[in-house]
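Extended Data, record OR9A protein
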Amino acid sequence: MKKYATNAKLITFIYLIYVFVCCGGFVLFSVIPKLLNIVLPLNESRPVKLPHQAYYFVDEEKYYVYILFYTSVFGSIATMMAIAHDCTFFIYIEHVCSLFAVAGFHLETLSLNDCNDANNRLDDRKIYNRKIATSIHVHWRALRFAKILEDIFCIAFAIQMLIVTAILSITLLQVALLYGEFNETVKNLAFIFAQVIHTFCFSVQGQRLIDHSLQLSDKIYNSSWYEIPAESRRLLLFIMRRSMQPCFLSAGKLYVFSLKNFSTVNVINKFMLLYAPLKSLLRILAFILKVMQSSVSYFTVLASFQ
């Protein structure tokens, strides 16, 4: 349990740094023209660049500092809310994975008797049945917690994926309309990359949940199951049967968060077979293509109205 608590702490810290670096870099693009006017002045001032396009019905050049302060403060508040939601989700996933790990440890060490069991007057069958019952209870707690997570985050993830798809489509449209403006193109592409990485983080956690929910069968295989009585051995079949059904996280029951869904592009899979050293890079490329497939479709529709 301490191992997974440490993992949760590390994941949340890295995610926090990543989000703030991305947000800070996004705001920095707006400050660069002002800094260049001081460091490398021109005959005329460079145009003002806001973090995002908005109309405040005031002179943006005159009230630039106030607008930037307003955008930074309220943007930070919204970012902290998103970070709190995501980090809480990551901690929950690590907790349910730790429950599956505890259940697997009990099953893997099922045939090992400690001193208390050796001095116990109960026969071996009752001892093993008690251990199996403890493992089943821990497994049930993990399954119940995973089901609660799916029920809580299912609708929220569906709405989030719709928003991400719409935002990526609009951002791609802006890249096409602002083609030739280097700063705007880099900023929009960086935003797209940040959204892709954000979705990738959820997919990694979803894959961890799937892997941990399926590992109980392997734990039983690796244990000395042949040393326990036949009556107790039959109880393990129920656990093995249930562990064949993975727990997963989905977006509206339509999209399952897993790494497999990010590496199903046929062209990329063929390249993986040919270029094994580039397998990791190609998997990331397949993930990007998978996520942006819907966004490109909507981008094409939006571009047709121009």
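Summary. The helical segments are 2-39, 64-108, 115-118, 124-177, 182-222, 230-243, 266-274, 279-303.
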